[in-house]
Amino acid sequence: MKKNISDSITNKVYEYRVLARLSQRELAQQVGVSKQTIFVMEKGNYLPSLLLAFRIAKFFNVDITEIFEYIEEGEVNHEDH
């Protein structure tokens, strides 16, 4: 029996960045990545490394769970024949 877990991580990087009145480029420079990385992360098309997630949370002086949220969609069981 094989278990597939469908889960995801959402983020509030855009909200925190806008509230801080920063451009994507400015935030990227502060956390050591490219502007493109911030762009795709805000769109939900990129999951940051744990290190980058902590850097972003530290930059905004909040707990990592304030910006990044783990969402468990549930388990799907498949039987191998």
Automatic annotation (TrEMBL):
Highest taxon, organism lineage: Bacteria
PANTHER family on file: DNA-BIDING PHAGE PROTEIN, TRACRIPTIONAL REGULATORY PROTEIN-RELATED-RELATED
Pfam family, one: HTH_3
HTH cro/C1-type domain boundaries: 13-67
Protein name (Swiss-Prot/TrEMBL): HTH cro/C1-type domain-containing protein
Key words, A-Z: DNA-binding
Species assigned in the record: Candidatus Enterococcus ferrettii
KW Isomerase (keyword) present: no
